Structure formats: C-alpha cells, structure tokens
Amino acid sequence: MDYTIFAVIIFVVALLVVGGAFLIRPRRPEAPPEPPAEEREGGTAGTTTVEPEEETAERERAPDTAVAEPEAPAAPEVETPPPSAGRLVRLRARLARSQNVFGQGLLSLLAADRLDESTWEEIEDTLITADVGVTSASQIVENLRTKVKVLGSRTPAEVRDLLRSELLAQIGTDQDRTVRTEPHAGGPAVIMVVGVNGTGKTTTTGKLARVLVGDGRSVVLGAADTFRAAAADQLETWGSRVGAPVVRKEEGADPASVAFEAVARGMDDHADTVIVDTAGRLHTKTGLMDELGKVKRVIEKKTSVDDVLLVLDATTGQNGLRQARVFAEVVNISGIVLTKLDGTAKGGIVVQVQRELGVPVKLVGLGEGPDDLAPFDPEEFVDAILDAGE
C-alpha cells in the first residue's frame, strides 16, 4: 500500500514538471503573410516594395548627410578701359567748369576799354591766385603789356589769342610728356609712382594701369606701400578689374623686396610695363625718403627705372611744391601727375610746378571715375581754361 501511494506521488510530480515546462516555453512568432505572387516574382511595372513603417520613419528622422559643395566665387569681370587717346578732350568740360574764374577773369580784364596800371596789377593778382607763381605771373603780364602796346587794337579774338600764346609759352609745348611704357631689351618698362599719402597716389597707380591696358599694354602692379595694408588691398582691386596681377607682401614687409619681385614677375610674364606704388608718409620723414631711394636702387640691380612719376594734389599749392622738391632730391623725378585738377581754379599750378622742378606734367586727374586720368595736352588745357571765360 505504501509503495502504491509513493508511486502515485512521483507520477503526479513528474506530470506537473513536464506540463509546466511546456506551458512556459516561448511561443514562436507567427510568420508574416506571404506577399501576393506578383510581388514575390519581382513585381510588374508600376509595383513597389513597401518598407516597414518603423524603418521608413527612422529614415525620415535621419538628417541629410549629403553636404552641398560651396560654390566657388565668381571671378571678377575683366573690364576693357577706353584708350588714352582723346581722354583730355572728353574730360575738357570738367576742366573748363573748374577754371571758369581763372579764364573769365583774365579775358574780361584784358578786354577792358582801358588797360591802366591798376588793371595790369589785377591781371597779375589773378594769375598769382591761380597758382601760376609770382615769377611766372610777372613775366606773363610784362609780355602781354608789350604785345598789347604793339598791336594797339584789342578785339575779343585778339585778346584770346594773345593770352593763349602766352600761357602756352609758359607751360611749354616742346617738352616730352610721354609716359615711358614701352618694353625694352632689358625687360618691361618700370614706372615708380611716388608722393605723399592723400594725394591720390595709389588710385593714380590703378588708373594708370587702366590707361595702359586700354592702350593694349600688359601690366604688372607692385604694392610696395607696405606701411598701409589698405594700399595693397586697394591696388589689388584696381588690378583685378583689368586683369593686371599684383605682387604684394604682408604689412610691414621690405618695400624694396616687393618692388624687386614685381619686376621679376614682369620679366617672367613678359609684361610690357611694371608699375610700382610706393609708400607715401609725410615727406618730412627722413626714413621714408631713404626708403624710396633704396627701392629705386634695388630695382636698378635688375633693370632700369624708366619713369618716376610724382603725384601732386593740385589744390595744395605751395605745400605741394615743397613736397615736390624733397621727392625730386631723392628719386630724380621725371614727370608730374596732377590730381584733382577739376576741383580747383588753381590751374596755374601746371606752370609753377614745371618751372620749379624742371620736369613736365605728364598726366592729370579730372574726376573720381576710374577713367578720369588723362595724358596732359597743353593746348587742350589752355583752350579749356579760355573757353570757360567765353
């Protein structure tokens, strides 16, 4: 009996163990329903495979990792400036307007019914006020008095012709006013541009590059004014407009080394002309004057300097002449560029600066536009002054 009960208990326990194991076994996931036959076989035209919702949502949440390539900045459009020929004729109206008092004053005084001593003194004062200079003004008046006395009659046409011939005699029509831009056997022509800051020196350098490119020349610019970072930036802007490369270095670099490398670049590129813009701190700074002399000497180790152009502000009068004398002592000025000539009635500075320095005015600035720099023509200049008075 005891054995029977014991066997029953063992059987029950075994049954419970086997049944529990079966109950707690994980259920196998049901297989998803098979897709239609056309999808199993690769589908027909117009059918797509549907992605699981979770995967689709995940892809929508994922950021777009494809980064668009930044567009390269567009190269500046290279301009084609007008040629130098006829520029002063085109800009003559600006010059005439600014010289109105000068021309009108002289012509009206000379055409007076009576030319007494006080009238001649007034004529001389008008010339001096126009910055002709005391010596030149006295000489002009003396010559005019003699001619008027000899001729006797003074019609408006005669007065104009008398004054025109006298002004042309003072300015000079037989001087060589050519800016030397022709390449030679030793390489490109080299032009140094010097002057005090504020006279428009760097702007003149850029405008001169435009004049030369307009005449079909190839140009390299040297940013040797390393004391002003803005000067190199400004020159680079001018160069990019006409396709002229600019040689520059960091601020404070040796100006002579920049000039030397600009000339070397001009030789390598077989350029026609190299224009070197130099520093322009106050002319009273001895160090700057020495630096300019050094720049010229370093260039001459590689090739000759064909032109040294001094930029003067036409409105500065005597102060400008003092600057001119100091620069001329250091770098042997070969030509003058008069800027802002359209904004002053002191056109007589042309006479005075040539008389003081013994070098010709070669270029004049007659506005703020990029093509307002023109080769100086004495006859066009005098006619513009006198036409303003008619």
TrEMBL record:
Enzymatic reactions: GTP + H2O = GDP + phosphate + H(+)
EC number: 3.6.5.4
Keyword set includes Ubl conjugation: no
Annotated Low complexity bias: 64-78
Localisation: Cell membrane; Cytoplasm
Binding-site residues for GTP, renumbered to this chain: 195-202, 277-281, 339-342
InterPro entries to which the protein is assigned, alphabetical: AAA+_ATPase, P-loop_NTPase, Signal_recog_particl_SRP54_hlx, SR_rcpt_FtsY, SRP/SRP_N, SRP54_GTPase_dom, SRP54_N_sf
Keyword Nucleus set for record: no
SRP54-type proteins GTP-binding domain ranges (all copies): 360-373
Stretches with biased composition (Basic and acidic residues): 27-42
SMART domains to which the protein is assigned, alphabetical: AAA, SRP54, SRP54_N
Annotated signal sequence range: none
Topological category with respect to the lipid bilayer: Peripheral membrane protein
Enzyme's top EC category: hydrolase
Transmembrane intervals: 6-24
Keywords noted in UniProt: Cell membrane, Cytoplasm, GTP-binding, Hydrolase, Membrane, Nucleotide-binding, Receptor, Transmembrane, Transmembrane helix
Subunit relationships: Part of the signal recognition particle protein translocation system, which is composed of SRP and FtsY.
Function: Involved in targeting and insertion of nascent membrane proteins into the cytoplasmic membrane. Acts as a receptor for the complex formed by the signal recognition particle (SRP) and the ribosome-nascent chain (RNC).
Protein name from the UniProt record: Signal recognition particle receptor FtsY
Organism: Streptomonospora algeriensis
